[in-house]
C-alpha cells in the first residue's frame, strides 16, 4: 500500500482528500467542488482542486484497487464511442457479472488488434483466464478470442446477457457530459481509471440490500478510503 505525501501543500490532507473524493465520487465539476468547499468555509480555487485530482487521484485509485477482492471470472466486454477534441475514438471496457469495473482502455480503432489489446491487458492485470466472456456481436471479439484460444468460452451477440456492460457505461456518459467531453486520450484514461476505482469501492446496488446491510457496505467503503489516503 503506497502512502500519500502531502508535503508542501497549503491545505491539510483531510481537506485535499475530501475534495478528491467529492470530484470522483459524484458527478461534479471542479467548480462544483470549489463551491461545496467554500460553503464549508474552505477558500480554494477550482484549479487547485484540478491539481489535487491529477496528482492524488491515480495514487488513491491504485491503493483502492489493491484492497478489492478478486473479481468474478465471468467477464462482460463492450466498447463505446467517445469524442475527444472532435475526434471519434473508442473506449473499450470490461466488467464482471457483479458490475465491478475490471479495466478500460481508450483506443483509436474498433478492430481485432484493439480487442486483443484489451483482453491481454485484462488477463495480465487480473491474473486469471475468464471462464466466460460475454460480448455484443462485434466480430473483432471473435477473432481476438480465437487467437487466444478462448473461443469456446465466448458468448457473443446476446444483448440481454451483456446488460452489465451496457449499463456500466451510464456513469461514464454522465461524467463526459459534465466535463463537456474529454480533452485528450491520456487525460481520459487517467480520469476514467481513477473514477473506476472509486466507483467500485462506493457503488452499491442499494435496492437489492437492506438498510442495515447498506450501512455496513458504506462503512467498509469509507474504511477502505481512509486506508487508501493514509499519509507517510
Number of strand segments:
5
| Structure classification | alpha/beta
Numbering strands along the chain, what is their spatial order in the largest sheet?
A: 3-2-1-4-5
**Helical proportion, percent range:** 40-55%
Brief overview, please?
Helices cover 52% and strands 14% of the residues. It is built from nine helices and five strands, in the order αααβββαβαβαααα.
Strand and helix layout:
Elements: H1 13-25, H2 30-39, H3 46-67, E1 74-84, E2 87-96, E3 101-107, H4 112-126, E4 132-134, H5 139-147, E5 154-155, H6 163-168, H7 170-178, H8 185-202, H9 211-228
Parallel strand pairs: 1-4, 4-5
Antiparallel strand pairs: 1-2, 2-3
What does this structure look like?
This protein has 232 residues and is of the alpha/beta class. The protein folds into two domains: 1-67 and 184-232, no CATH class; 74-183, Nucleotidyltransferase, domain 5. It is 52% helix and 14% strand. Helix 2 (30-39) packs across helix 3 (46-67), helix 3 (46-67) packs across helix 8 (185-202) and helix 4 (112-126) packs across helix 5 (139-147).
Amino acid at each position: 500500500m503506497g502512502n500519500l505525501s502531502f508535503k508542501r501543500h497549503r491545505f491539510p490532507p483531510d481537506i485535499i482528500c475530501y475534495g478528491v473524493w467529492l470530484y470522483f465520487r459524484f458527478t461534479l465539476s471542479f467548480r462544483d467542488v470549489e463551491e461545496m468547499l467554500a460553503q464549508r468555509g474552505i477558500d480554494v480555487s477550482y484549479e487547485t482542486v484540478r491539481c489535487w485530482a491529477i496528482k492524488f487521484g491515480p495514487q488513491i485509485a491504485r491503493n483502492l484497487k489493491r484492497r478489492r477482492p478478486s473479481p468474478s471470472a465471468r467477464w462482460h466486454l463492450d466498447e463505446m464511442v467517445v469524442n475527444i477534441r472532435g475526434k471519434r475514438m473508442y473506449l473499450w471496457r470490461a466488467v464482471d457479472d457483479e458490475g465491478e469495473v475490471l479495466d478500460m482502455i481508450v483506443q483509436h480503432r474498433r478492430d481485432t488488434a484493439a480487442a486483443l489489446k484489451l483482453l491481454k491487458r485484462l488477463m495480465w492485470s487480473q491474473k486469471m483466464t475468464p471462464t466466460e466472456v460475454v460480448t455484443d456481436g462485434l466480430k473483432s471479439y471473435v477473432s481476438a478470442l480465437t487467437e487466444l484460444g478462448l473461443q469456446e468460452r465466448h458468448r457473443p451477440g446476446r444483448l440481454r446477457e451483456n446488460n452489465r456492460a451496457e449499463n456500466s457505461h451510464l456513469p461514464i456518459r454522465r461524467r463526459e457530459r459534465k466535463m463537456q467531453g474529454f480533452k485528450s486520450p491520456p487525460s481520459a484514461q487517467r480520469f476514467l481509471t481513477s473514477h473506476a476505482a472509486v466507483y467500485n469501492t462506493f457503488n452499491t446496488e442499494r435496492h437489492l440490500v437492506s438498510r442495515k446491510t447498506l450501512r455496513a457496505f458504506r462503512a467498509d467503503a469509507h474504511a477502505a478510503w481512509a486506508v487508501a489516503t493514509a499519509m507517510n
